[in-house]
Input
Amino acid sequence: MAWLSRRDKRPTEELSREFLATVFVHWEGLYRYALRLTGSPDQAEDLVQEALTKAFTAYERLREDTRHRAWVFTILRNTFLSKTRKSGREAPLDDAELVPDLGADPVDDVVVRAEDGFRHGFEDEVLEALQALPEAHRTAVVLCDVEGLSYDEIAVVLECPIGTVRSRIHHARRRLRQTLAGYATARGYDDVEHAG
Output
């Protein structure tokens, strides 16, 4: 992998402190993302633990310029995909765009971030709609709109060009909006379509 390179050998205690400060600090975001991938709190915890263990094992080989957040989210996603393949569950759709592009969408600019107080505030309808998205689309929209990763960071996690990230986010938001139209109307968000 391109992100690996030998660092000078440092004491384990120093590496542990650095790992906690640069990687482990993303635990909450990793858990939320893992929960969206697995749909199960227990499986999400196991997935995060496995990803962090892998990250710690590889940590001393990282290049100095590594984006730690994108790197550890990549490990988590790859761990999930590996488990999915081994279990024979549904294969994730990587590049299939399920909804045709109908032009620019003003709702694409509406972003709900975890730091806005929506950490665990998703209602069942929203969680079900997220879970129904193909994995690559769900990952892109969750990492962008919930975890606040940049398109560059998401491209690293998904191992794809930024244009593909933009497309996946666009299509995920469109599908969520279609799926959640009744939910939004019932909660008084009728004018979301006209936001701009």
In short: The longest helix spans residues 68-87. The chain is about 60% helix and 0% strand.
